[in-house]
Amino acid sequence: MLGLGRLEFLFTITAFTFQIVLIVHFALRKWAFQAYIKRYGWLVYALSIPAALVSVLLLAGGMTWSLWLGGFIFLVWATFGYVVEYVRGIEWRNARRWPIFAIYVILYLATVMFYWWPLALVWRPLWYVYAVLFIISTVLNVTSHKRTT
Asked: How far apart are CA 121 and CA 106, in angstroms?
């Protein structure tokens, strides 16, 4: 693909899979929040495991840190989110709990950025395509939250 090496291709597929999964997740959450989120929302977090394994391959393959860091940040974000939402059952979005909110959003955005920005190193047009997908996922994310208070 586009003259990319195997590991660059693997990074690109992982980055785009992450963003497409977010778009599908936010779209489903938008139209069926309660029915969807408790039953299937954890799957987004579970995808951090194969993403971290890809990061291990990228690291072992000698790729630059900007290509392998995203999967590890994804794993940290997903672990934090899973523990807060599914293990501890803390409602932090509607009853805004600022310490949780801040950590969650920073880790989420760091994950997105370390999948998005390195695409410019791989092939600049991919960066622009990802920007469009990021805008779509952000709109869906912001509009999919149900305010119950």
From this structure: 23
Give whole-number Cα distances, 73 to 94, 95, 112, in Å: 25, 26, 9
Residue 120 φ then ψ, to 5°: -65, -30
The single-letter DSSP state of residue 85 is: I
The distance between the two most distant Cα atoms of the chain, rounded to a whole number of Å, is: 52
Give per-residue pLDDT as tens, 105-134.
999 999 999 999 999 999 999 999 999 999
List Cα–Cα distances, 92 to 42, 78, 79, 101, in angstroms: 16, 15, 16, 7
User: Please, is 96 exposed, middle or buried when counting C-beta atoms within 10 Å of its C-beta (0-12, 13-18, 19+)?
Assistant: exposed
11-48 residue pLDDT tens: 999 999 999 999 999 999 888 867 788 889 899 999 99
- Report the predicted TM-score, pTM, of the whole model to 2 decimal places: 0.93
